[in-house]
Amino acid sequence: MSNAELSPTSWVRSQTETILETGTTEGLFVEGSPIVLFTTTGAKSGKKRYVPLMRVEENGKYLMVASKGGAPEHPSWYYNVKANPKVSVQDGEQTVERTAREIEGDEFAHWWELAVAAYPSYAEYQKNTDRQIPAFVLE
């Protein structure tokens, strides 16, 4: 997937380049929490885009949390996943194809608990924004 575009955000681009160079997400952490690399498809451009996010996994399913650090707007990748729910997930050296589905209600509550356990800053991000931070389960 070398035709995928890197993030314009320097620390995100740096993380992604490390994963691409080493072939694994192993050993990469944000605030002590591991990350995985998602590859999405642009809603308008159709281009592949890399999205490194916190590793939230349960029984082979993954979670994408559209927190954008608690910003007032959704991250751009949120709209890409809504338009093109086929997403690949690299966890360690393994890459799997999944279909993303936005979640709500009790299912969201369950996954949000897992997300905050995996990366406690998510709770702070939610406090810092008026929007409900959305999430997708990839199965």
Give the DSSP E fraction (strand runs of 2 or more residues): 25-35%
Report the uncertain regions. Answer: none
User: What value does the Rg take, in angstroms?
Assistant: 14 Å
- Overall pLDDT confidence: 94
Q: Please tell me what the overall shape is.
A: globular
Q: Mind describing the biggest β-sheet?
A: 8 strands, antiparallel
Measure the end-to-end span.
21 Å
SSE string: HEEEEEHEEHHE
- Number of helical stretches of at least 4 residues: 4
Structural class: alpha+beta
Fraction of residues in helix: 25-40%
Tally the beta strands: 8
EC number: 1.1.98.-
Catalytic activity: oxidized coenzyme F420-(gamma-L-Glu)(n) + a quinol + H(+) = reduced coenzyme F420-(gamma-L-Glu)(n) + a quinone
Keywords: Oxidoreductase
InterPro entries: F420H2_quin_Rdtase (IPR004378), Split_barrel_FMN-bd (IPR012349)
Describe this entry's structure for a reader:
The structure is a single chain. The protein has helices at 10-22, 76-83, 105-118, 121-127; strands at 29-30, 33-41, 48-54, 57-58, 61-65, 86-91, 94-102, 135-138. A hairpin with a 6-residue loop joins strand 2 (33-41) and strand 3 (48-54). Helices cover 30% and strands 32% of the residues. It is of the alpha+beta class. It is an enzyme of class 1 (oxidoreductase). It catalyses: oxidized coenzyme F420-(gamma-L-Glu)(n) + a quinol + H(+) = reduced coenzyme F420-(gamma-L-Glu)(n) + a quinone. Belongs to the F420H(2)-dependent quinone reductase family. GO terms for molecular function: coenzyme F420 binding; oxidoreductase activity.
